[in-house]
Specification:
Length: 94
């Protein structure tokens, strides 16, 4: 799973029918400390995420298709959660 911040929506006039009626979002990847990872993903939104929200993304085709309940969809990345908080513990502490 990947952490990211939603930066915007992607619009397409021509796409595969499995994308019809689904929002496609541009997401910048981040590290657990909130710093930018330098990469980005384009993911189908399954949780009604908005710009600026931190999200959890599944980036593996089979898992993404299971979330969308469509085993044949040409979809790889899906936003599966909105993150409320990230807590990182230091190694060696309890």
């Amino acid at each position: 799973m990947i952490l990211g911040v939603v930066k915007g929506q992607v619009y397409s006039t021509i796409n595969h029918p499995d994308y019809d009626g689904r929002r496609i979002l541009l997401v910048d990847r981040i590290r657990p400390d909130g710093s930018e990872d330098g990469g980005y993903l384009i993911a189908v939104d399954a949780v009604d995420a908005g710009v600026g929200q931190t999200v959890l993304i599944v980036d593996e085709g089979n898992s993404a298709r299971q979330v969308l309940e469509n085993p044949d969809a040409p979809i790889r990345s899906v936003i599966i959660g909105i993150v409320d908080a990230i807590e990182v513990s230091q190694a060696g502490t309890s």
